[in-house]
Write a structure and sequence with these properties.
Length: 150
C-alpha cells in the first residue's frame, strides 16, 4: 500500500497541469545529473510536497525509470513504520528490474537479511543487487520516498 499508485492512495493525485513547475523542473534537472544522489524536498506542512512526490513518481513510472516509491502515512500502521521501507523498496526494485529481483531473491535465500539491521538490509537487498544492474541502461533509476517524518 506504500507505492504511489496503490489502491490505498486512490484519493491522492499529482500536481495539476501547469502548477508546481519550478520544483518539478528542479527534480527533473537533478535526475539527469544526480549529484548528489539524493534530492531532498522540504517545506512546511500542507505546502504540496506529497503531491509533488506523487507527480515525480508518476512521471518516472511512465518513462520506465521509477525503481520504487514509498509514501509514509501516519494513519496506516504498515506505512508509518520504517522497518517496512527497505524490504518494500527491494520488492519494487525486483519487479521493475527482473535481473535485480533474482539477486534480491538469492540474498534472501542465502543470507536472510530480512531480520537484520537496516544497514545490512540496505546493503544486501538494495545496494548489492543494484550493482549487478546492466550498465546498458543509461537512464537513471528514481526512488521516491515521501513523508519520512510521518
Amino acid at each position: 500500500g506504500a507505492a504511489y499508485n496503490s489502491s490505498q492512495r486512490d484519493f491522492r493525485t499529482g500536481c495539476l497541469s501547469g502548477t508546481r513547475e519550478y520544483p518539478l523542473a528542479a527534480v527533473h534537472e537533478w535526475v539527469q545529473s544526480p549529484t548528489p544522489p539524493l534530492f531532498w524536498l522540504n517545506g512546511l506542512a500542507g505546502t504540496g510536497k506529497t503531491t509533488i512526490a506523487h507527480s515525480v513518481a508518476e512521471y518516472y513510472d511512465e518513462r520506465k525509470q521509477l525503481g520504487a516509491s514509498f509514501f509514509f502515512s501516519r494513519d496506516q500502521q504498515d506505512r508509518r513504520d520504517t522497518h517496512q521501507v527497505i524490504s518494500t523498496i527491494a520488492y519494487q526494485l525486483g519487479k521493475a528490474y527482473p535481473e535485480v529481483g533474482k539477486q534480491i531473491a538469492a540474498a534472501i535465500k542465502n543470507q536472510n537479511p530480512l531480520h537484520s539491521n537496516s544497514r545490512t538490509q540496505f546493503r544486501q537487498l538494495i545496494v548489492e543487487p543494484l550493482s549487478t544492474l546492466s550498465r546498458q541502461n543509461s537512464q537513471p533509476t528514481v526512488v521516491v520516498i515521501d513523508a519520512l517524518d510521518e
